[in-house]
Amino acid sequence: MLTIPIPLSARRTRRARGFSLVELMVAMALGLIVSAAVVALVVAIIRSNRQTLQSTRLNQELRATLSVVANDLRRARAVADPLTSALDPLGNQFAAMSTATAGCIIYAYDGAASGPWHVIRLDNGRVVLEGAANRPGNCNPGGAPVELGSDQIEITTMTFTPTTTATAPPLATDETLVRQFTVTITGHLIDDNAELADIDRTMSQTVYVRSVGTGI
């Protein structure tokens, strides 16, 4: 049987053949789809990580603000000489506390900065503290407010909920018998990203204040 050899030039031409146009287009389409999926996944991970970090930051900022409020409020009714105060017919001059105005609490303790009376209230998204020499008649004593907490967050709500013991009489208007207050704040980050700014967190802490010698 006679075999006709294939010319060398023909063999080289066959080896030099690449992908057809259709094959190249299919490969490019598949590559673009895979690339788009990878990019979308990376973007989603970055966004998720940022939201997680900002949420953690928000929790830390709220916790810090709440801690500052609770630490000062915990000093309410403190006096330099408890024995003298207990024997005083008028009782503890710092006994009265008031949460009559929403988002505000009025209290006093001996040695308070700019005090002895303190007012903590919510003012345009900020928690502020004001001192006064005499018991304020309202939550705006006209002093110099000091911001508590970070300016990177906006506090939307703050409440002070007094709680009496089971044996206590009905709550007095000056709340002289209350020894327990629950402080609750809600806030969000100040951020240009609406997704992050819309994340709200609420935190609460129960604060126990001193007795006024009534046995309650």
Short description:
This protein is an alpha+beta fold and 216 residues long.
What does the largest sheet look like? 4 strands, antiparallel
Beta percentage is: 15-25%
H and E string: HHHEEEEEEHE
Instruction: State the strand order across the main sheet.
Output: 1-2-3-4
For the residues shown, what is the average pLDDT?
80
User: Globular, elongated, flat, extended or rod-shaped: what is the shape?
Assistant: rod-shaped
Distinct helical segment count: 4
Taken together, the total number of domains comes to 1
Structural class designation: alpha+beta
The rounded Rg comes to 34 Å
Structure description:
The structure is a single chain. With 216 residues, the protein is an alpha+beta fold. The chain has one domain. The chain is built from four helices and seven strands; from the N terminus they run αααββββββαβ. The protein has helices at residues 8-15, 21-73, 82-87, 194-197, and strands at 104-108, 117-123, 126-132, 146-148, 153-163, 180-189, 200-208. Strands 1-2-3-4 form a four-stranded antiparallel β-sheet. The termini are far apart.
Which tags fit this structure?
216 residues; alpha+beta; four-stranded antiparallel β-sheet; three-stranded antiparallel β-sheet
SSE inventory with pairings:
Elements: H1 8-15, H2 21-73, H3 82-87, E1 104-108, E2 117-123, E3 126-132, E4 146-148, E5 153-163, E6 180-189, H4 194-197, E7 200-208
Antiparallel strand pairs: 1-2, 2-3, 3-4, 5-6, 6-7
